[in-house]
Amino acid sequence: MRENKRIVCRVTGRVQMVMYRDFSQRKARKLGLVGFVKNETDGSVTVVAEGTKERLDMYLAYLHKGSILSRVENVQMEWKEGTNEFTDFKIHY
């Protein structure tokens, strides 16, 4: 069994009201990742995802690209150990 890792990201740019959370959720589920995505009051988006390092690396490429309507300026990311606390990838409101 491969060891799960966690990424905690803060995504800035035009990432709210442009389907970025939905995009992030769909890509995470496609890759078999678990965690959540949520809008922040400062206009950024927080993403917490867990899975294998290989799949998280693929997911990070999607986060940098963003949805067709978004314009990602920056993705601040931190690697952590996985906690296995999630069972799905959800949008937090």
TrEMBL record:
Residues 6-93 form the Acylphosphatase-like domain. Pfam families: Acylphosphatase. SUPFAM superfamilies: Acylphosphatase/BLUF domain-like (SSF54975). It catalyses: an acyl phosphate + H2O = a carboxylate + phosphate + H(+). Keywords: Hydrolase. The active site is at R21, N39. It is an enzyme of class 3 (hydrolase). Transmembrane segments: none annotated. One of its GO terms (molecular function) is acylphosphatase activity. Its EC number is 3.6.1.7. The keyword Acetylation does not apply. Belongs to the acylphosphatase family. PANTHER family: ACYLPHOSPHATASE. This is acylphosphatase. It comes from Candidatus Ryanbacteria bacterium RIFCSPLOWO2_02_FULL_45_11c. The lineage of its organism: Bacteria, Candidatus Ryaniibacteriota.
